[in-house]
Specification:
The protein is mainly β and about 475 residues long. It is about 5% helix and about 40% strand.
């Protein structure tokens, strides 16, 4: 008999609330720190692209919860890839070291994990930035009944350089595993390079992987006040199913040509766009519901398509890519974006320094009337790095800012009452954190992985901290 997992039950419960039906008013946002556990006393540490390989917030999922256990992936001080597991609430982690070592000091080469609910397998991709990837698939049922199977490298499986024989691409970056409503698993990834790449999907249904193909375009002409660009890539803020089965994706465009910027020291990202799919990523529609792309065809989402932009911004404000998104209980999309507002000037000349000095995060969302609204979060970033968005069971919003600070806003206020709830004290976190998105939905706990600040290449401790959200 097939077991019903904790996450599966939570998902089924979410489906019982039809999309478009608001939940009853509940308590406002709050966080209560529960415990901190240490994954590694000496995790690998090097700063690359202003980030750490163990704590890039776009990892999906570097930390996740399933069937009463939490899983984490990281690299040790020697570069060995490790997967850890603990019982929720437990203080100790059991670890398995994979037969793979980090090949270069590149913070893009993250570990991402996913679960195929149809067969209880753990899937892992790692160590790739515009080149070949590494993949591990566990034995069936491993995650359905974790106490019944020894936690060893044998049950995790061999390290492969394809998806069970499916090669995908030789220019692979940004793997993100997404569970489908039916219990299958999809893998989102980029083909190509920064400034000239396309988003693609592959799908696992239990018997093997299938490449669905590319769904975004790198071609077309974009013209700013300064110049034009004819190549780009779409950077996703996320890719997630809501309770009703709609697939949502916020994004920003990164232009290849620096001529579109007022200064070459900026970053060539512009505009926040949004698309969705009602057929598991086979076709894509803009906010108005107009078909704009068919996956695997020549008609993919392009910068020249109409109706994509939901928040307009030129390339002169150091808009961050790959920030964060969530969908609420009514199936409405929310995102966090961040940039240097115009009140601090109309031309950033050093995107790291300017974002650190003047960057702000914004909560962008679609309300029940179908209108897009944006609220500035009144907490200075003091960092060039990304913020993660989480919504609790009452649809209150939380922004997990760099250094492990947490701000919150209530649904009851229309998300107008953003305030700092936790100042990050005692963490000594480097910057970005990796949020366990599935645990928020499973037991209403905000759990994130962070690494302590170090210097040079001196290894530092890696932790997971848990905060209770309103019950």
């Amino acid at each position: 008999m097939k077991r019903r997992t904790v996450l599966g039950a939570a998902f089924a419960g979410a489906l019982a609330t039809p999309a478009g039906t608001a939940r009853a008013a509940g308590p406002g946002p709050s966080v209560s720190r529960q415990q901190t556990t240490r994954l590694d006393a000496q995790a690998i540490y090097f700063v690359s692209y202003d980030g750490l390989v163990n704590n890039n917030s776009f990892q999906k999922n570097g930390l996740f919860t399933y069937q009463g256990c939490q899983y984490a992936g990281w690299y040790t001080s020697t570069g060995a890839a490790v997967i850890g597991r603990r019982v929720l609430g437990g203080s100790s982690w059991s670890t398995v070291t994979l037969a793979h070592r980090l090949k270069s000091s590149d913070s893009h080469n993250v570990i991402s994990m996913g679960v195929s609910r149809t067969d209880g397998r753990l899937h892992i991709t790692m160590d790739s930035h515009s080149d070949g990837f590494f993949y591990v698939k566990s034995v069936a049922g491993l995650l359905d009944d974790p106490g019944a199977t020894p936690w060893t490298s044998a049950v995790l499986g061999a390290v492969q350089t394809s998806l069970d024989g499916l090669p995908l691409t030789s220019q692979f970056t940004y793997p993100q595993f997404v569970q489908t409503p039916e219990g299958g698993l999809q893998l989102s990834y980029r083909v190509g390079v920064s400034g000239n790449g396309r988003n693609a999907l592959a799908e696992y249904g239990g018997s093997g992987w299938t490449a669905l193909g590319e769904w975004s375009s790198s071609t077309g002409t974009y013209t700013s006040a300064h110049g034009s660009s004819t190549a780009r890539n779409m950077y996703l803020h996320g890719i997630d199913y809501d309770a009703g089965g709609r697939l949502h994706a916020f994004f920003t465009w990164r232009e290849q040509s620096a001529s579109v910027m007022c200064s070459s020291g900026g970053i060539a990202n512009h505009d926040t766009g949004y698309v969705h799919s009602t057929d598991r990523g086979r076709t894509w529609r803009n906010d108005a519901g107009v078909l704009v792309a068919t996956t695997g065809s020549s008609d993919t989402v392009a910068v020249t398509d109409s109706g994509l932009v939901v928040d307009s911004l030129d390339p002169d404000h150091s808009l961050m890519n790959q920030e964060s998104q969530w969908t609420d209980s009514a199936g409405l999309p929310h995102a966090i974006i961040s940039y240097v507002p115009g009140r601090f000037g109309q031309c950033t000349t050093d995107y790291v320094a300017d974002r650190t000095a003047n960057g702000r995060a914004f909560h962008l969302r679609k309300n029940s009337a179908g209108t897009w609204q944006k609220t500035e979060i009144p907490v200075a970033l003091n960092s060039s790095q990304r913020t993660k968005l989480v919504l609790d069971t009452y649809d209150n919003a939380y922004a997990v800012l760099p250094y492990g600070r947490i701000a919150g806003a209530s649904k009851a206020s229309g998300y107008s009452d953003w305030a700092l709830l936790h100042d990050g004290s005692g963490l000594n976190a480097f910057g970005e954190v990796v949020v366990d998105e599935l645990r928020v939905r499973a037991d209403n706990v905000l759990s994130f992985m962070y690494q302590e600040t170090s210097s040079g290449t001196t290894p530092s401790p890696l932790h997971v901290v848990d905060f209770a959200l309103p019950a």
